[in-house]
Design a protein that fits this description.
2 copies of one chain form a homodimer. Chain A has 141 residues and is mainly alpha-helical. Chain A is built from 6 helices and 3 strands, in the order αααβααββα. The first copy, chain A, has a single domain, classed as Winged helix-like DNA-binding domain superfamily/Winged helix DNA-binding domain (Arc Repressor Mutant, subunit A, Orthogonal Bundle), CATH 1.10.10.10. Helices cover 58% and strands 10% of the residues of chain A. In chain A, strands 1-3-2 form a 3-stranded antiparallel sheet. Chain A binds a DNA duplex (30 and 30 nucleotides) through helix 4 and helix 5.
DNA sequence: GTAATCAAGTCTCAGATAGAGACCTTGTGC
DNA sequence: GCACAAGGTCTCTATCTGAGACTTGATTAC
């Protein structure tokens, strides 16, 4: 157990995913995968997508479904998702005007991986809580 | 196309995932799945996990692999992941002391869903970029 | 005619958070 | 005793988040 990894770039089985991306010509700062993951991994966007997975919803319905989101953050999350083609915003010409948000096909295609993550969280939440408790205990030594 | 969704909670095929969680007794503010997803979905943690998936690494090696992370954020991300039981921090009694970070079994178990998300991003990045361009165009009308 | 209401936002401001980078600690080589 | 290396911490500023007041434009209420 005394052997230290040398940090030699030629040592590992793979040169790391980030290095691969760099080899593909992506600067790490501009890596499109990172951009997209940042979007997808943002605090509220996941929850908005999960809500819309149950069917199209209107602005205030989303506000009610996500009781602890502010109007501002909901607007911003919806704009981000619309901008990335994950949902479609439809304005109905009623009085007063109604706005409906619905997943696009691209948005639907994301739900598989996203629900995979949600399932992981559901399955392993007890393990995570146990680890948290253990960490607290180890800190109070 | 004039029919507006009524927002009737009894109308949908499912009462929404969030509503299900509420029915299970989770206040939305304290929903453990949300807590865990927030952790897992934080900006840097995903990238740290991906780097460690290639094998254990030391602090400065991670710093080199993620050129645009600051020391402070790396420290914080590593502490968060350790606290949630996703990685293990090992101090070697050398001079100067070396610290190695490695995924735990729990961390490894997360890689499947996480790589699913990365694959989605890789597969659909062109579609996302196309949507972004289209959105820009539609805004400049 | 004026006021209140509703949907779907926008605006402002305070407080929390992220990032840059200087500094710290312990030990070795020169 | 000076510089350097590892693995951080500390401080300061800039950005972002969230609460909630305000907007807009048409409809009904008085």
């Amino acid at each position: 157990m005394t052997r230290l990894p040398a940090g030699n770039p030629a040592a590992g089985p793979r040169p790391s995913r980030l290095a691969e991306w760099q080899a593909m010509g992506f600067a790490p700062q501009a890596c499109p995968i990172r951009t997209i993951l940042d979007q997808v991994a943002a605090k509220w966007t996941v929850l908005i997508l999960l809500e819309l997975h149950d069917g199209p919803k209107r602005f205030n319905a989303l506000l009610r479904a996500l009781p602890d989101i502010s109007r501002r953050m909901l607007t911003q999350g919806l704009r981000d998702l619309e901008q990335n083609g994950l949902l479609r915003r439809t304005v109905f010409d009623t009085r007063p005007p109604a706005v409906e948000y619905a997943l696009t096909a691209l948005g639907e295609s994301l739900m598989g991986p996203l629900l995979g993550l949600v399932d992981w969280a559901t399955t392993h939440r007890e393990a995570v809580f146990a680890a948290q408790r253990q960490y607290q205990d180890s800190q109070s030594d």
